[in-house]
Amino acid sequence: MKLKLNTSLQLRRIAVGIFSLLIILNIAAACELATAVKDATIDDIRTFFKNQKKKVITFVGYSGAEYEDKMELLEKAGRILDEFVASKTIVNIGATPEGIGAVYELAKRKGFITTGIVSTQAKKYNVALSPCVDYVFYVEDDTWGGFLKGSDRLSPTSSAMVENSDVLIGIGGGEVGRDELLAAKRSGKEVRFIPADMNHQKAREKAQKKGLPAPTSFDGAAGEAFKHQ
Questions:
Q1: Which end of the chain has fewer CB within 10 Å, C or N?
Q2: Is residue 9 part of a domain?
Q3: CATH number, residue 138
Q4: Range of 167's domain?
């Protein structure tokens, strides 16, 4: 029984590796575009989306924490994207390629316009942008997003994300994603949440670096918040 389980896990890892390689090879074909990058105010971003006259779907989830099962992430995101008409919809994420940013490439292959709203902290620390995003808006922000410390008010970046979205899709996610989803739900936006594990190895390594016990849950802050909703 143990041998069968180990073989199954090995085969799944091989399949994930092959799938990831195919995704990487397809990126060049799907993402031959020149990204328009702009430092933007909240009003600038609001005007941009208003002028597009399209439904905006925003995906939130893990970023640097990555996903334990990237293939499952893309399968779930793909099913959601298939519900919408590409010519009438914008796919918005946080501009970077890690974690949930993998959905950008999938969205481009399906014909969607893609946008990214991200804190100027990303520029400050030279964080790479996804090669599959059409428009990127840097928002002046002293934080990476989420609720401002000691309040239930969103930071400028997260405020722009939520305000300009018609539908927010959470697939796992940390504290910033949790705060955005909760704020969107509170404001009456359509919110969907799909549980997903963060990358187990990365989570263990992060805990070890901080001198913390090894994690026993990989649900992420968003998963914990939506567990009983």
A1: N
A2: no
A3: 3.40.50.450
A4: 35-226
Spatial separation of the C-alpha atoms in residues 129 and 110, rounded to whole Å:
20
pLDDT tens-place string over residues 200-216? 999 999 999 999 998 88
Number of structural domains found in the chain: 1
Q: Report if residue 2 sits inside a domain.
A: no
Asked if residue 17 belongs to a domain, the reply is: no
Q: Could you say which residues of the chain have pLDDT below 70?
A: 1-30
pLDDT value, residue 8: 55
Kindly state the tokens that stand for 8. Answer: 């199954």
The beta-carbon contacts of 42-48 under 8 Å, at least 24 apart in sequence, are 42/139, 42/156, 42/159, 42/160, 42/163, 44/137, 45/117, 45/137, 45/139, 45/160, 45/164, 46/160, 46/163, 46/164, 48/135, 48/137
